[in-house]
């Protein structure tokens, strides 16, 4: 039979309902029902074993990721990217360890790829109790580092794409140290996700070495991508380059002074705040960032919408809302930085 997500599957719907009841303790059963139907439909759609294995393993890895991170949902986290080949006596290794320790001292937890080099430096600096490791199975280079080897917050992935989801989804900030293809791949994906609004706004800090690794990259952006029209000037708001690990921590801390989080509700961008803005401050934002709003839209102080009831811990936060122009996520980062000056 052709299965549908609507309740038109007759006996199959009854069996799924019975299964959910029999299993017990199922949260949000309507969503779990859809996942079961997706699995059944996949079994009908393809007889190609490799495709079904990929779907099955993806679900298993993401379920376990959620299990590991869930108890720490209310703890701010910073993902650190960087070369696995950086050795422990190199200046960037030492700088990364100092950076991670300072973050841990400020109450943050650290997420790394769980391997050696910069990843190990991040875990060492923060300490095992303040660390996560999203490791990847590779035929070379990548075994779990000694800090995280027996840590319950070590996850070893088969698929890079699941690992990347964890790196970005669970992080409140991203820090990128110099590295090779893997590091640049991870950094560019974060750029793309923030630029297109596929992840929530968050500080992206590029921690430079004395030779100017990121400065050389920045020059390429200006001379080739910007001049060629491949990016916009506002995209430079997406990141901060610094050689100082103290400044890197400061950038992350300041991002969340007034800004808390965002959510789209019925087409409006709702920005949750840690304190109320005055009418004068809202007017300043309107005047300074007109491109951010759709024509006819205004920035307004608002109460929590009924749709936000699924986040009860955020209901009492002050809010502003407006119709957002979705081509300007780089400008949205600049807007948030301006918010944080009030």
From TrEMBL:
SUPFAM superfamilies referenced in this protein's UniProt entry, alphabetically: MCP/YpsA-like
Taxonomic path: Bacteria, Pseudomonadati, Thermodesulfobacteriota, Desulfuromonadia, Geobacterales
NCBIfam families referenced in this protein's UniProt entry, alphabetically: Rossman fold protein, TIGR00730 family
Organism from which the protein derives: Geomonas silvestris
A UniProt-annotated Pfam family: Lysine_decarbox
Gene Ontology biological-process entries: cytokinin biosynthetic process
Name recorded for this polypeptide: AMP nucleosidase
Reaction catalyzed: AMP + H2O = D-ribose 5-phosphate + adenine
UniProt-listed Gene3D superfamilies: 3.40.50.450
GO CC terms in record: cytosol
Lineage: superkingdom: Bacteria
GO MF annotations in UniProt: AMP nucleosidase activity
EC number: 3.2.2.4
């Amino acid at each position: 039979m052709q299965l549908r997500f609507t309740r038109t599957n007759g006996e199959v719907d009854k069996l799924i309902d019975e299964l959910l009841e029999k299993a017990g303790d199922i949260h949000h059963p309507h969503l779990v029902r859809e996942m079961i139907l997706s699995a059944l439909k996949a079994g009908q759609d393809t007889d190609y074993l490799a495709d079904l294995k990929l779907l099955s393993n993806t679900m298993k890895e993401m379920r376990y990721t959620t299990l590991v991170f869930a108890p720490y949902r209310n703890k701010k986290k910073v993902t650190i990217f960087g070369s696995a080949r950086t050795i422990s006596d190199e200046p960037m290794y030492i700088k990364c360890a100092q950076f991670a320790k300072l973050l841990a001292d400020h109450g943050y937890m650290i997420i790394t790829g769980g391997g050696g080099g910069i990843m190990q430096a991040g875990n060492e600096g923060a300490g095992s109790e303040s660390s996560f490791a999203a490791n990847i199975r590779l035929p070379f280079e990548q075994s779990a580092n000694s800090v995280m080897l027996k840590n319950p917050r070590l996850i070893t992935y088969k698929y890079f794409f699941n690992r990347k989801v964890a790196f970005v989804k669970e992080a409140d900030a991203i820090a990128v140290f110099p590295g090779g293809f893997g590091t640049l791949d991870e950094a560019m994906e974060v750029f793309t996700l923030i630029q297109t609004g596929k992840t929530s706004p968050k500080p992206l800090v590029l921690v430079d070495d004395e030779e100017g690794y990121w400065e050389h990259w920045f020059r390429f952006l200006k001379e080739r991508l910007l001049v060629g029209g491949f990016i916009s000037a506002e995209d430079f708001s997406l990141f901060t380059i610094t050689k100082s690990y103290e400044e890197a921590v400061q950038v992350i801390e300041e991002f969340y002074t007034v800004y808390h989080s965002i959510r789209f509700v019925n087409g409006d961008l709702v920005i949750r705040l840690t304190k109320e803005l005055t009418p004068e401050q809202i007017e300043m934002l309107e005047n300074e960032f007109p491109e951010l709003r759709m024509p006819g839209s205004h920035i307004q102080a608002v109460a929590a919408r009924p749709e936000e009831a699924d986040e009860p811990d955020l209901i009492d936060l002050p809010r502003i809302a407006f119709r957002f122009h979705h081509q300007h996520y780089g400008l949205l980062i600049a807007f948030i930085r301006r918010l944080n000056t009030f």
